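#struct-pred

JT: dropping the chains for the assembly here, can someone run the whole complex?
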Amino acid sequence: MRRFLLIAVPYLWLLALFLVPFAIVLKISLSDIALAIPPYTPTLDFSAGWAGIKAFFAGLDFENFVWLTQDDLYWKAYLSSLGIAALSTVLTLAIGYPIAYGMARAPEEWRPTLMMLIILPFWTSFLIRVYSWMGILSQEGFLNQFLLWTGIIGEPLIILNTKIAVYIGIVYTYLPFMILPIYAALDRLDESLIEAAEDLGCSRLSAFWLITVPLSRNGIAAGCFLVFIPALGEFVIPSLLGGSGTLMIGKVLWEEFFSNRDWPVASAVAIVLLAILVIPIVLFQRNQQKQAEAEQ
Amino acid sequence: MNRLSWFNTVSLTVGFAFLYIPMLILVIYSFNASKLVTVWAGFSTKWYGELVRNEAFLDAAWVTLKVAVFSSSIATVLGTMAAYVLVRGRRFFGRTLFSGMIYAPLVMPEVITGLSLLLLFIGIGLDRGVLTIVLAHTTFSMCYVSVVVSSRLATFDKSLEEAALDLGCSPAQAFRLVTLPIIAPAVISGWLLAFTLSLDDLVIASFTAGPSSTTLPIKIFSSIRLGVSPEINALSTVMIAIVAVGVISASLISKRNLVRQQQDEQAAARA
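RK: done, full complex below.
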């Protein structure tokens, strides 16, 4: 009995608040928009019995998904999200790897402090970290003032409300997710392998490319997925830093729901986004499994 | 690896500067006397005064705190139960679905989680308010708690539990007297993680909050959409300070415990 409760309580909670809502999204994505409360049709009418259920299923169709392919806005938003997520993942890797590498080579007694300094921003509010860049990147912001003062530029750069600001925002907020798995991989690396390579005539740089990078590839993969997956559905960063010109699917979904009140299309946008996410999620899971097996 | 080259030193310095300078600028400008955030007009703490007098922010902070305490506490109980079932339990019907539902919310985009929960609450006619935010936050943060706790459960010696059972403990007693004290640090960090996630969440709260239950992130978001404001800088500084004190003292405590443990082990080895 006790064992049954132990399983049943969290199980039922997740069924009711994760799986059922998801089924509702799927169902509404197949419905049509209507001027009613709730603003879609058909609604399931159990009181009409079997005929009601039949009428309900007859009312479902793939119209919203067809609509997504016809209107430029949606596929452009998906492509633009994929592009932004991919490029910012590469940028985060390029900035995060040297930091993780430096941490792994730092003296033993520094490492707990360095670790804490990487984790600290993670505990501070995401919203505030994104907000801090608004004051820096705006036209009369800190960065422009600094660059004008040094004389590097003659007139202020326009960075806020462009894609560049979105890249900066994603790299900044997700950097700890990239650094931690790479650091974990580099920390386990056996130093004698690099010494052996150098003894056998490798230069330090080629030892790095031939030994260090391949042996940290699981960490690199984990870090890349941990940045790419949340960046793809990101809403806060493009809406605060990207301006109206930056198209990202999380923002489109938000506006479809809150501004246009088109629930069926918003649901269809969500279903397609999930379908796109399945590929990186499965690859990530496989990478984690490989890593777990390698550790045993 | 104790050989810091000039390249390592430069990348560490630049990296940490990149991580901390934006927050430092935020903190400095919260003490600016001018309403214009980018023009320095002398030191002043007047924005902190404005903040304390701003009823809307205080109300929102109170709602946020209530939601975070309730949701993280329920999530810790449910998440620990789920972790125990997944790591220690025997096979049961639908186990794959269960573990799938534990991991899926971790990678689910927030906009989708928020949308789906809102559609559920509307579907069953539940009025949106503090309760719906608590339900939503509990659901995603219990999965984080479960991951943290199961990694601790998977690594500790199962024979300790078996010994307790052999010596006449009931399973519930064994859990309370043996398992729980061992996994307690993981349960506490799970609670802290759930608490922070709840304090921090904007997207899911925006979908599931009603007009009378605005949380602090929703309030902050709607005011910074209009641009930078010194009052928000002051609020951010307060939040950064709380987190910094919390994280630094937690790491000092765990360091002291580690040192004490090592001393105990040495003493035991000598004896």
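JT: nice. Chain A touches chain B through 84 residues (CB under 8 Å). The domain at 71-295 of chain A is CATH 1.10.3720.10 (MetI-like fold).
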